[in-house]
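Collaboration report, partner site 2.

Our partner group contributed sequences for two proteins of shared interest, and the home lab folded both. The records are reproduced in the order in which they were received, starting with the first partner submission.
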Amino acid sequence: MVDPKTLRDITFFADLTEDELKAISPIINKKNYKVGDAIFKENEDGTSMYIIKKGEVKACKTAPDNELLTLTLMKDGDIFGEMSFLDGRPRSATIIAIADTEVYTIEKADFENLLDKQPRMVYKLMRSIVFHIHVIVRGMNSRYMEMVNYMWGRKR
Protein backbone atom coordinates (compact mmCIF):
# COMPACT_ATOMS: atom_id res chain seq x y z
CA MET A 1 0.00 0.00 0.00
CA VAL A 2 1.19 3.50 -0.79
CA ASP A 3 0.11 6.82 0.60
CA PRO A 4 -2.70 8.21 -1.60
CA LYS A 5 -1.06 11.66 -1.47
CA THR A 6 1.96 10.35 -3.40
CA LEU A 7 -0.32 9.30 -6.27
CA ARG A 8 -1.63 12.82 -6.86
CA ASP A 9 1.50 13.90 -8.79
CA ILE A 10 1.47 10.94 -11.19
CA THR A 11 -0.17 11.61 -14.55
CA PHE A 12 -1.72 8.13 -14.71
CA PHE A 13 -3.83 8.94 -11.64
CA ALA A 14 -4.55 12.59 -12.54
CA ASP A 15 -8.28 12.07 -13.24
CA LEU A 16 -8.98 10.40 -9.91
CA THR A 17 -10.71 12.14 -7.03
CA GLU A 18 -9.27 12.10 -3.51
CA ASP A 19 -11.73 9.34 -2.55
CA GLU A 20 -10.73 7.28 -5.59
CA LEU A 21 -7.05 7.68 -4.73
CA LYS A 22 -7.82 6.41 -1.23
CA ALA A 23 -9.71 3.46 -2.72
CA ILE A 24 -6.91 2.39 -5.06
CA SER A 25 -3.91 3.02 -2.80
CA PRO A 26 -4.33 -0.26 -0.82
CA ILE A 27 -3.75 -2.33 -3.97
CA ILE A 28 -0.66 -0.41 -5.10
CA ASN A 29 2.75 -1.68 -4.06
CA LYS A 30 6.09 0.07 -4.30
CA LYS A 31 9.20 -1.64 -5.68
CA ASN A 32 12.74 -0.42 -6.23
CA TYR A 33 15.21 -1.52 -8.88
CA LYS A 34 18.91 -0.77 -9.32
CA VAL A 35 20.64 0.07 -12.60
CA GLY A 36 20.82 -3.07 -14.74
CA ASP A 37 18.03 -4.96 -12.94
CA ALA A 38 15.61 -6.78 -15.22
CA ILE A 39 12.13 -5.91 -13.97
CA PHE A 40 10.69 -8.66 -16.14
CA LYS A 41 11.76 -10.61 -19.20
CA GLU A 42 10.21 -11.19 -22.59
CA ASN A 43 7.89 -14.24 -22.68
CA GLU A 44 7.54 -14.44 -18.88
CA ASP A 45 4.05 -14.73 -17.47
CA GLY A 46 2.91 -11.63 -15.68
CA THR A 47 -0.23 -9.86 -14.58
CA SER A 48 1.23 -6.70 -13.03
CA MET A 49 1.18 -3.23 -14.49
CA TYR A 50 3.93 -0.79 -13.53
CA ILE A 51 3.90 2.98 -13.13
CA ILE A 52 7.29 4.69 -12.91
CA LYS A 53 7.38 6.96 -9.86
CA LYS A 54 11.02 7.90 -10.36
CA GLY A 55 13.74 6.59 -12.64
CA GLU A 56 14.19 5.29 -16.15
CA VAL A 57 13.82 1.92 -17.89
CA LYS A 58 14.27 0.55 -21.37
CA ALA A 59 12.03 -1.92 -23.20
CA CYS A 60 13.98 -4.47 -25.24
CA LYS A 61 13.27 -7.33 -27.64
CA THR A 62 15.54 -10.29 -28.18
CA ALA A 63 17.01 -10.48 -31.69
CA PRO A 64 17.62 -13.84 -33.42
CA ASP A 65 21.28 -13.68 -32.28
CA ASN A 66 20.06 -13.22 -28.64
CA GLU A 67 21.17 -9.59 -28.56
CA LEU A 68 18.79 -7.24 -26.71
CA LEU A 69 17.57 -4.44 -28.99
CA THR A 70 16.16 -1.35 -27.30
CA LEU A 71 12.67 -0.42 -28.46
CA THR A 72 12.01 2.59 -26.25
CA LEU A 73 12.97 4.41 -23.08
CA MET A 74 10.47 5.24 -20.35
CA LYS A 75 10.75 7.66 -17.45
CA ASP A 76 8.83 9.19 -14.55
CA GLY A 77 5.07 8.82 -14.98
CA ASP A 78 5.22 6.27 -17.81
CA ILE A 79 3.48 2.92 -17.53
CA PHE A 80 4.55 -0.51 -18.76
CA GLY A 81 3.38 -4.09 -18.47
CA GLU A 82 -0.13 -2.99 -19.41
CA MET A 83 -0.46 -5.47 -22.26
CA SER A 84 -0.05 -8.60 -20.09
CA PHE A 85 -2.05 -6.84 -17.38
CA LEU A 86 -4.98 -6.59 -19.79
CA ASP A 87 -4.76 -9.78 -21.85
CA GLY A 88 -2.97 -12.24 -19.55
CA ARG A 89 -0.51 -13.22 -22.29
CA PRO A 90 3.27 -13.46 -21.72
CA ARG A 91 5.37 -10.30 -21.59
CA SER A 92 6.13 -8.91 -25.04
CA ALA A 93 9.45 -7.31 -24.08
CA THR A 94 12.17 -7.26 -21.46
CA ILE A 95 12.21 -4.22 -19.18
CA ILE A 96 15.56 -3.18 -17.70
CA ALA A 97 16.25 -0.35 -15.25
CA ILE A 98 18.79 2.08 -16.70
CA ALA A 99 18.71 4.27 -13.59
CA ASP A 100 17.78 3.54 -10.02
CA THR A 101 14.02 3.24 -10.41
CA GLU A 102 11.02 3.29 -8.10
CA VAL A 103 7.80 1.87 -9.50
CA TYR A 104 4.26 1.35 -8.30
CA THR A 105 2.65 -1.95 -9.27
CA ILE A 106 -0.96 -3.01 -9.60
CA GLU A 107 -1.97 -6.66 -9.85
CA LYS A 108 -4.71 -7.54 -12.31
CA ALA A 109 -6.74 -9.57 -9.78
CA ASP A 110 -6.73 -6.69 -7.27
CA PHE A 111 -7.70 -4.24 -10.00
CA GLU A 112 -10.58 -6.46 -11.15
CA ASN A 113 -11.84 -6.71 -7.57
CA LEU A 114 -12.31 -2.93 -7.60
CA LEU A 115 -14.63 -3.15 -10.59
CA ASP A 116 -17.78 -3.79 -8.57
CA LYS A 117 -16.86 -1.32 -5.83
CA GLN A 118 -15.46 1.50 -7.97
CA PRO A 119 -16.61 1.12 -11.60
CA ARG A 120 -16.14 4.81 -12.43
CA MET A 121 -12.58 4.78 -11.13
CA VAL A 122 -11.75 1.59 -13.06
CA TYR A 123 -13.19 3.22 -16.18
CA LYS A 124 -10.94 6.26 -15.71
CA LEU A 125 -7.84 4.11 -15.29
CA MET A 126 -8.72 1.91 -18.26
CA ARG A 127 -9.14 5.06 -20.32
CA SER A 128 -5.63 6.14 -19.28
CA ILE A 129 -4.26 2.76 -20.34
CA VAL A 130 -6.03 2.97 -23.71
CA PHE A 131 -4.69 6.50 -24.28
CA HIS A 132 -1.20 5.23 -23.48
CA ILE A 133 -1.52 2.37 -25.98
CA HIS A 134 -2.97 4.82 -28.51
CA VAL A 135 0.19 6.97 -28.26
CA ILE A 136 2.37 3.89 -28.80
CA VAL A 137 0.42 2.78 -31.87
CA ARG A 138 0.45 6.25 -33.44
CA GLY A 139 4.20 6.47 -32.85
CA MET A 140 4.71 3.07 -34.46
CA ASN A 141 2.58 4.10 -37.44
CA SER A 142 4.65 7.26 -37.90
CA ARG A 143 7.95 5.37 -37.68
CA TYR A 144 6.65 2.74 -40.11
CA MET A 145 5.70 5.41 -42.65
CA GLU A 146 9.09 7.10 -42.23
CA MET A 147 10.76 3.75 -42.91
CA VAL A 148 8.61 3.09 -45.97
CA ASN A 149 9.29 6.56 -47.33
CA TYR A 150 12.99 6.17 -46.68
CA MET A 151 13.20 2.75 -48.37
CA TRP A 152 10.93 3.36 -51.37
CA GLY A 153 10.46 7.08 -51.50
CA ARG A 154 7.14 8.83 -51.86
CA LYS A 155 5.23 7.28 -54.69
CA ARG A 156 1.68 8.44 -54.05
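Second partner submission, folded after the first:
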Amino acid sequence: MNAMESVGSYLRRHREAKRMSVEEISRATRVPTASVERIEADQFDELPGEVFVRGFLRSYAQAVGLSADDVLARYTASRRVAWVTPLPLSSPTKPARGGRFGFAIAFVLLLFLFALALSIVLKPRGHDKPQELSHVAPSGTPIRV
Protein backbone atom coordinates (compact mmCIF):
# COMPACT_ATOMS: atom_id res chain seq x y z
CA MET A 1 0.00 0.00 0.00
CA ASN A 2 1.55 3.26 -1.14
CA ALA A 3 1.16 6.00 1.51
CA MET A 4 1.12 8.73 -1.14
CA GLU A 5 -1.47 7.02 -3.34
CA SER A 6 -4.86 8.77 -3.36
CA VAL A 7 -8.05 7.00 -2.32
CA GLY A 8 -9.40 7.01 -5.88
CA SER A 9 -6.27 5.56 -7.47
CA TYR A 10 -5.99 3.01 -4.63
CA LEU A 11 -9.51 1.78 -5.34
CA ARG A 12 -8.98 1.86 -9.12
CA ARG A 13 -5.79 -0.18 -8.78
CA HIS A 14 -7.63 -2.86 -6.78
CA ARG A 15 -10.59 -2.84 -9.20
CA GLU A 16 -8.24 -3.36 -12.14
CA ALA A 17 -6.40 -6.13 -10.26
CA LYS A 18 -9.76 -7.90 -9.91
CA ARG A 19 -10.33 -7.29 -13.66
CA MET A 20 -13.60 -5.48 -12.99
CA SER A 21 -14.96 -2.65 -15.13
CA VAL A 22 -16.44 0.57 -13.77
CA GLU A 23 -19.86 -0.69 -14.87
CA GLU A 24 -19.38 -3.93 -12.90
CA ILE A 25 -18.48 -1.94 -9.77
CA SER A 26 -21.51 0.24 -10.36
CA ARG A 27 -23.81 -2.78 -10.57
CA ALA A 28 -22.22 -4.51 -7.57
CA THR A 29 -22.37 -1.43 -5.34
CA ARG A 30 -25.50 0.22 -6.76
CA VAL A 31 -23.46 3.40 -7.05
CA PRO A 32 -24.04 5.33 -10.31
CA THR A 33 -21.28 4.90 -12.89
CA ALA A 34 -20.58 8.65 -12.91
CA SER A 35 -20.08 8.56 -9.14
CA VAL A 36 -17.67 5.61 -9.41
CA GLU A 37 -15.67 7.57 -11.99
CA ARG A 38 -15.61 10.64 -9.71
CA ILE A 39 -14.42 8.51 -6.79
CA GLU A 40 -11.58 7.12 -8.89
CA ALA A 41 -10.69 10.67 -9.99
CA ASP A 42 -10.76 11.88 -6.34
CA GLN A 43 -13.49 14.39 -7.20
CA PHE A 44 -15.32 13.96 -3.90
CA ASP A 45 -16.65 17.53 -3.90
CA GLU A 46 -18.71 16.69 -7.01
CA LEU A 47 -20.48 13.84 -5.21
CA PRO A 48 -23.55 14.17 -2.99
CA GLY A 49 -23.11 14.82 0.76
CA GLU A 50 -20.44 13.36 3.00
CA VAL A 51 -22.70 10.56 4.24
CA PHE A 52 -23.21 9.32 0.68
CA VAL A 53 -19.49 9.53 -0.14
CA ARG A 54 -18.65 7.38 2.88
CA GLY A 55 -21.36 4.88 1.93
CA PHE A 56 -20.08 4.74 -1.66
CA LEU A 57 -16.51 4.17 -0.45
CA ARG A 58 -17.62 1.42 1.95
CA SER A 59 -19.53 -0.37 -0.83
CA TYR A 60 -16.69 0.05 -3.33
CA ALA A 61 -14.12 -1.31 -0.86
CA GLN A 62 -16.23 -4.39 -0.12
CA ALA A 63 -16.81 -5.01 -3.84
CA VAL A 64 -13.05 -5.19 -4.53
CA GLY A 65 -12.24 -7.13 -1.35
CA LEU A 66 -10.69 -4.33 0.72
CA SER A 67 -11.33 -3.41 4.32
CA ALA A 68 -13.96 -0.67 4.36
CA ASP A 69 -12.45 0.77 7.55
CA ASP A 70 -9.02 1.08 5.90
CA VAL A 71 -10.49 2.85 2.85
CA LEU A 72 -12.50 5.22 5.04
CA ALA A 73 -9.44 5.95 7.19
CA ARG A 74 -7.44 6.74 4.04
CA TYR A 75 -10.27 9.00 2.82
CA THR A 76 -10.53 10.80 6.16
CA ALA A 77 -6.79 11.37 6.26
CA SER A 78 -6.83 12.81 2.74
CA ARG A 79 -9.75 15.12 3.53
CA ARG A 80 -8.60 16.27 6.97
CA VAL A 81 -7.06 19.45 5.57
CA ALA A 82 -10.25 20.33 3.74
CA TRP A 83 -12.32 19.90 6.92
CA VAL A 84 -10.31 22.46 8.90
CA THR A 85 -12.11 25.77 8.83
CA PRO A 86 -10.03 28.78 9.80
CA LEU A 87 -11.44 30.80 12.65
CA PRO A 88 -11.89 34.51 12.06
CA LEU A 89 -9.63 36.85 13.93
CA SER A 90 -11.16 38.15 17.11
CA SER A 91 -13.44 40.97 16.15
CA PRO A 92 -13.79 43.87 18.54
CA THR A 93 -17.23 44.23 20.09
CA LYS A 94 -17.07 48.01 20.54
CA PRO A 95 -17.90 48.92 16.90
CA ALA A 96 -21.07 46.84 17.14
CA ARG A 97 -22.15 48.92 20.14
CA GLY A 98 -21.20 52.08 18.26
CA GLY A 99 -23.40 50.90 15.42
CA ARG A 100 -26.31 50.49 17.81
CA PHE A 101 -25.66 53.92 19.28
CA GLY A 102 -25.59 55.45 15.80
CA PHE A 103 -28.84 53.69 14.97
CA ALA A 104 -30.44 55.09 18.13
CA ILE A 105 -29.32 58.62 17.26
CA ALA A 106 -30.64 58.27 13.71
CA PHE A 107 -33.96 56.96 15.05
CA VAL A 108 -34.36 59.88 17.50
CA LEU A 109 -33.45 62.36 14.77
CA LEU A 110 -36.01 60.87 12.38
CA LEU A 111 -38.63 60.88 15.13
CA PHE A 112 -37.93 64.58 15.78
CA LEU A 113 -38.16 65.44 12.07
CA PHE A 114 -41.42 63.50 11.80
CA ALA A 115 -42.89 65.39 14.78
CA LEU A 116 -41.75 68.70 13.28
CA ALA A 117 -43.33 67.90 9.91
CA LEU A 118 -46.53 66.76 11.61
CA SER A 119 -46.74 69.97 13.65
CA ILE A 120 -46.32 72.05 10.49
CA VAL A 121 -49.03 70.12 8.66
CA LEU A 122 -51.52 70.17 11.53
CA LYS A 123 -50.82 73.78 12.66
CA PRO A 124 -54.08 75.82 13.02
CA ARG A 125 -54.24 78.42 10.27
CA GLY A 126 -56.72 81.16 11.15
CA HIS A 127 -55.02 83.68 8.87
CA ASP A 128 -55.31 81.43 5.84
CA LYS A 129 -59.13 81.64 5.70
CA PRO A 130 -60.68 83.28 2.65
CA GLN A 131 -61.73 86.93 3.02
CA GLU A 132 -65.47 86.07 3.09
CA LEU A 133 -65.11 83.74 6.08
CA SER A 134 -62.73 85.86 8.13
CA HIS A 135 -65.36 88.55 8.90
CA VAL A 136 -68.20 86.44 10.29
CA ALA A 137 -70.03 87.84 13.32
CA PRO A 138 -70.37 85.60 16.34
CA SER A 139 -74.12 85.20 15.79
CA GLY A 140 -73.51 83.72 12.39
CA THR A 141 -74.68 86.72 10.34
CA PRO A 142 -72.16 88.26 8.03
CA ILE A 143 -70.85 91.74 8.70
CA ARG A 144 -71.36 94.22 5.87
CA VAL A 145 -68.37 96.32 5.09
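Feedback sent to the partner group on the second submission included the following. The two ends are 118 Å apart (CA to CA). The chain is about 60% helix and 0% strand.
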